[in-house]
Amino acid sequence: MKLFIAGLDTETNTFSPIQTGLEAFSENLIAYGDATERPLNCCSSQMFVWRNAARENGWAVIESLCAVAEPGGKTTRAVYESFRKTIVDDLKAAMPVDAVMLALHGACVADGYDDVEGDLLEHVRQVVGPDIPIAAELDLHCHLTDRMVANASMIAAYKEYPHTDIEIVAEQLFRLMERTLAGEVRPVMAVYDCRLVSTFHPHKAPLRGIVDRMKAIEGQDGVLSVSFGHGFPWGDVADVGAKMLVVTDNDPQMAARIAEKFGREIYDAREEMRHDYLTIDVALDQALAARSGPVVLADVSDNAGGGAPGDSTFILRRIIERGIEDVASCLYWDPIAVRMCREAGEGAKLDLRIGGKVGKASGDPLDLTVRVRRIASGITQRFGPTPLSIGDAVWVSAGNVDIVLNTLRTQTFHPECMTALGLDLATKKIVVVKSSNHFRAGFEPIASEILYVGAPGALQPRFDELPFTKLAKPYWPKVDHPLMDQG
Ligand SMILES: [Zn+2]
């Protein structure tokens, strides 16, 4: 057997001012055929699983491009087209292959391509023809388009958020590919559109129970795989929204039935899953009233992991204006401020303009007199088992407010992005992190309480107010009963 593998992973926030070009990929990962010989990157981990499993089977593995960028605005056309050409050319050179497995995101938008993954899968399908199985693993924050489903043979998305099961799903998908190649199963897919645009949290009820039941039927009675594509709300594309995907063994009617059953369950539970994001001042009041600290405040609107700039100042400004102390806040993507601190040196006191630099979603910059406490490079923070760089970093203090600035745009995953600089979080009343939910795995053990704040920003979470121009169907929470409204 000969298996062809490749990966392309970035999530596109079409409302973000950040351009995603070659530099954005370069500072994360561009590997031309050797991603699995380099250190583990969270987005190349599927390819490690597939390569190792294939080699254990004695299969030949042809590894093509693996390109990963921090989520941002649209990918530039030239970059996407060059990546696609690399993958397609490598595939043509590798033909004939027995199977293709692709590690994709599912919510990538490039200039001229609203459905990058659908376009890539279509190009791959054209090369291999109708009979060679193509598998794709997607982030659950995917748009899950008809074009993807039409051109892939089997698709599975992660089920957990934080995404702790990327490798588990990769392994399941490999076993499904193995059975397909052995002629034991013939995967067919069906999708159900839930007409919901929101974020969903599988760590709590009612979604936890639904996801557990999705898992329980996998491998039973001809059901091969069940995925809930949460959707990625900040993509202005026709296919934005939550979808249920079911893969069965050659039974499209059953796939459609089960997709509808689970999709309707999620639809029916929508009000229960509505999030209450606190305003900045209410969140600060609640944190100050807590008996013990630290209370972790999630600045979900400035999550670089969803394409936001990562330098917004809305929450920090209120903390300073209100004179709140014993606060730590991170990570502020501000290479200019980092450079000024580096020039000044550890221990220096200086007037520093922090954040608010990238665009309107960043708010206004904040002018503070700060003390440079620590300057460091080589600091990493764990995302699951993978240590990820935060670039160069500086810890500055404005009175009793500690702020971490860095040079590599990334969300806050783990306390070690602060503790590695020497910051002691146990003494803090409030810790502000720029992240939507991935911070939970790292911060839950140290937090007395976690509060989600709906500040302004590129990922503002009032989904009924998102300025969609391409979504033609009614959706919740814009309307209360979108399925009924459609008849
Ligand atoms: Zn995701």
UniProtKB/TrEMBL annotation:
Every Microcystin LR degradation protein MlrC N-terminal domain range: 2-288
Q: Name one GO molecular function term.
A: metallopeptidase activity
Concerning InterPro entries, the annotation shows: MlrC (IPR009197), MlrC_C (IPR010799), MlrC_N (IPR015995)
The free-text cofactor remark is:
Binds 1 zinc ion per subunit.
Top-rank taxon of the source lineage equals Bacteria
Q: Where is the Microcystin LR degradation protein MlrC C-terminal domain?
A: 297-470
Q: What is this protein called?
A: Microcystinase C
